[in-house]
UniProtKB/TrEMBL annotation, chain A:
Functional description taken from the UniProt entry: Binds specifically to cytosolic chaperonin (c-CPN) and transfers target proteins to it. Binds to nascent polypeptide chain and promotes folding in an environment in which there are many competing pathways for nonnative proteins.
Lineage: Eukaryota, Cryptophyceae, Pyrenomonadales, Geminigeraceae, Guillardia
Superkingdom of the organism of origin: Eukaryota
Subunit structure: Heterohexamer of two PFD-alpha type and four PFD-beta type subunits.
GO biological process: protein folding
Pfam families: Prefoldin_2
Annotated family: Belongs to the prefoldin subunit beta family.
SUPFAM superfamilies hit by this protein: Prefoldin
Coiled coil region boundaries: 89-116
Organism of provenance: Guillardia theta (strain CCMP2712)
InterPro entries noted in UniProt: PFD_beta-like, PFDN4, Prefoldin
Entry protein name: Prefoldin subunit 4
Keywords for this protein: Chaperone, Coiled coil
Automatic annotation (TrEMBL), chain B:
Pfam short name (any one): Prefoldin
Single GO term (MF): tubulin binding
Gene3D superfamilies: 1.10.287.370
GO cellular component labels: cytoplasm; prefoldin complex
Natural source organism: Guillardia theta (strain CCMP2712)
Primary role: Binds specifically to cytosolic chaperonin (c-CPN) and transfers target proteins to it. Binds to nascent polypeptide chain and promotes folding in an environment in which there are many competing pathways for nonnative proteins.
Quaternary structure and interacting proteins, as annotated: Heterohexamer of two PFD-alpha type and four PFD-beta type subunits.
Matching SUPFAM superfamilies: Prefoldin
Keywords on record: Chaperone, Coiled coil
UniProt record, GO biological process: microtubule-based process; protein folding; tubulin complex assembly
Record's protein name: Prefoldin subunit 3
Stretches assigned to coiled coil: 49-76
Record's keyword annotation contains Chaperone: yes
UniProt key word Protease: no
Length: 132, 214
């Protein structure tokens, strides 16, 4: 987390600084978690949207489609299937937006903390990516 | 128990930590039990070292000993962290599974209101699907584990599954909370180690301590 300081004069770390560092560390982890979650949600959303498009593009409107529910596939008419998929899209979109809002707050808070800590410790603190 | 108290005693730390982690271990596989009461408090807190000089004096140790102690604590924290992360991953996998089952159940429920038969392709074994016609039904069988399957009415099944989902979610939250707390302790310990180390380097540079023999 901290490089062994080269400069002779070193600033003492106070409890408040420690709290900031701790918060930064936690936010950093949360940030990566959110990134992963958002990515998987987006993939899922993409799949659902493809799915919705595919149903629309089917030539024969009366042909039933098979929809995966749980572990099995269920035959449904296109209208119901479309409704089901659209509902899923809506849900996933909502969840994605929520995650994106959170990642923004995390980002700005991290920036704030980083600014404050770098101001005090200069080069002897390293807040870049250094842990998984 | 605070870390200060821990330091005063000869070596109570391993027992405390091992105790905490074994509770954590048993906690996760059975997400249906309510007896799990580990709080972030179950993990000993790491004290922030206000002043390295005072710290060394009060613990009557030199830099090396202090560092060794911190290192010891640090690896214990890391051990708990790996356990907790594992539990978290487990739960994160379990929750979507429960959700999927619930979804299927809800689907069956809506189907059961109509009169028409429902055509499905179900998995006989991986890569083999078979067709089935579902007649109107109002019960499902849930796999309870331990080779037991039980028939439930839709509502009962839904209650059971939502209950499981709820427990799994609370457990996940609790683990998340513990992990955050642990993260604080780990970071504090990391910073403590760096500061004790830097302190020693500074003293040697300024000649207050003899230079290290290579």
């Amino acid at each position: 987390m901290m490089a062994a300081g080269e400069e002779g004069e070193e600033k003492e770390v106070t409890a408040a600084d420690q709290a900031d560092i701790n918060e930064f560390s936690k936010l950093n982890i949360r940030f990566h978690e959110l990134e992963d979650d958002i990515k998987s949600k987006k993939d899922h959303l993409q799949n659902l949207q493809d799915c919705s498009n595919e149903i629309m593009m089917l030539l024969d409107d009366s042909e039933p489609v098979k929809l995966s529910v749980g572990e099995a596939f269920v035959e449904l008419n296109q209208e119901d299937a479309q409704g089901h998929v659209d509902k899923c899209i809506e849900e996933v979109e909502g969840e994605t937006n929520q995650l994106q809002a959170e990642i923004l707050t995390v980002k700005s808070r991290m920036k704030e903390l980083k600014a404050r800590l770098t101001l005090k410790f200069g080069k002897s603190i390293n807040l870049e990516e250094d842990e998984s | 128990m605070s870390a200060r108290e821990l330091r005063a005693l000869p070596d109570p730390l391993p027992a405390a930590l091992v105790g905490a982690s074994s509770v954590l271990l048993t906690q996760v596989p059975d997400i249906m039990s309510e007896k799990t009461v580990t709080t972030p408090g179950g993990i000993p807190a790491a004290d922030f070292i206000e002043n390295v000089d005072n710290h060394l004096e009060s613990t009557k140790s030199n830099h090396e000993q202090a560092l060794a102690k911190l290192q010891d604590l640090y690896s214990k924290y890391k051990f708990i962290e790996s356990r907790l992360s594992q539990s978290k991953a487990n739960l994160k996998g379990k929750i979507p599974e429960i959700k999927k089952t619930l979804e299927a159940l809800k689907f069956l429920k809506t189907k059961s209101t109509g009169d028409e038969e429902c055509l499905t392709d179900f998995e006989l074994s991986p890569t083999i699907l078979a067709k089935a016609k579902l007649k109107k039904t109002d019960t499902v069988c849930l796999w309870l584990g331990a080779n037991v399957m039980m028939e439930f009415s839709f509502d009962e099944a839904e209650n059971l599954l939502s209950g499981n989902l709820g427990t799994a979610s609370t457990n996940l939250e609790r683990i998340q909370e513990q992990l955050l707390f642990l993260r604080d302790q780990i970071t504090t310990t990391e910073v403590n180690m760096a500061r004790v180390y830097n302190h020693e380097v500074r003293l040697r540079k300024s000649g207050k301590l003899p230079a290290k023999a290579e």
